[in-house]
Structure formats: structure tokens, C-alpha cells
Write a structure and sequence with these properties.
Oligomer: single chain
Radius of gyration: 21 Å
Number of helices: 13
Strand content: under 5%
Structural class: mainly alpha
Order of helices and strands: HHHHHHHHHHHHH
Number of strands: 0
Amino acid sequence: MKLGLTKFLSPFRVIVISYILAMFLFSLLLYLPISSQPGITVSYSEALFTSVSAVSVTGLTVVNVSETYSGIGIFFLALAIQLGGIGIMTLGTFVWIAFGRKIVLSQRMLIMVDQNQIAFSGLVSLMKGILFTALAIELVGAIVLGTYYMNYFDTVAEAYYQGAFGALSAFTNAGFDVTGQSLIPFADDYFVQMVNILLIFAGAIGFPVIIELKEYFKSKDRTFRFSLFTKIAVSTYFIVFAIGFVGLWFLERNAFYEGLSWHQQLFFFLV
């Protein structure tokens, strides 16, 4: 019986089950009365939809986040987005190490499957690198946006609150916002748009590529060569980007894009 259970709970199935459980856990947290604004009632289906969207970082929502959820609810939502963006295994590895536990073979197998690796060596270091790199990028984004947002919001706390959530949402490609209007308030502000574009790009290009870029800039060896994975990932990203931009421009040049300058057309596509 034990052997059968072990066979059923393969690393891939454990990861899938973990994400499903996380979605239901955050749906319950978002369903709690303390997660909603006073006078606002959230149905469980709405909480579940929001949770699934946050953990899977799709950005779809059936409620206005800023008008529906309280500060506690926004905190739970941010945790769900962070979990989905960085990954359960990455955060789980960090917590396990923080408590002084050793990463055993079965856990290394889960990490290997989750991160699409083919070898056991260096997995824990990879998890640490992913976590600290992600948090560092999000922190820089939050500071830059938060400082700049003092031109838009009345208080310093509100500015950095908006900046922190915006940086998290952009880097994880989650698509959520707490402005209530997405990036519409910054439609003519190319600085805000460019910061968001850079965060979206950094999150979309993938952690292995970012870590390899970091190693390149830290390396004193000028013969450093990027891996085939990085070359293919970056090339594919920009090819898809170019095809998407040209295709959208061709379809919308006489409709939505009509009358817009070239830089307005470009930023509308990028953001």
C-alpha cells in the first residue's frame, strides 16, 4: 500500500496537488470577512476565482480589487501572487532552509521537476538564487515606483503601497492592480510605463536567464558564453514580441492606433 501511494505521488503530481491546495487555501483566506472592505460581501465563487487567478498569475478578476478587499485581503492576494510567481518549491525550499532542515533526495526531485532541471547538483543554490533575485528586483521596482508615485498620491504610505504592489504584479506578470484603474492614471507617463515594462520583461524572460546574466556581469572571464537555453529563450522572446507587435499594428493601424504617434502605439503594445 505504501509503495502504491509513493508511486501515485510522483514529483509532478505532488507539485500539481500543492498548487491546487494553495488555490483553495487562498480562496478561504480571501473569503474571510476580514479580507473584505466594510459593507462588501464576497461570494466564495468570487474568492475562488480570484485565488486561482492570483496563484496562476493570469490577472483575471471578477471584482474590483481596490474597492472589494481590505488591507488584509490585499496582503493575502499579494502572497498568492508571490507564491504563483516564484513557485511553491522555491518558497518551500527557503522556509525549509530557514528552519535549519536538510533538503533530502525526495525534495530535490520535486525541485528538479518544478524547475525543469536534469541534474541534482546545485538545486538548492538555484532555489536561493531565484528567490533572492526575484525579491531584489521587486524591491528595486517598489522603491523606484513608490518614490516616483509621490507625485501622484497624497501620502508617502499610499505611494509606496501602490509602488510595492505594482512592482510585484508587474514582475510576476500577474496583471492585478490596486489603483482601481490599472495603468490608466499613467497613460501619458512614459517613466512609469517603462519601469513596468522592464519588470514585466524581467519576469517573463525567466529566472535561469536572469541568473545567468547576473553571473555574466559578475564574471571576470571575458570568454563567458551563454547557455543554449538562454540563447533560445531570449531569441524566441524577441521573435514572438516582434511578430506580435507587427501583427497587432497591422490589424489596428486604421482602428485603435489611428491618430496615435509611433511612440504611443509602441507603449500601448508594450504595456
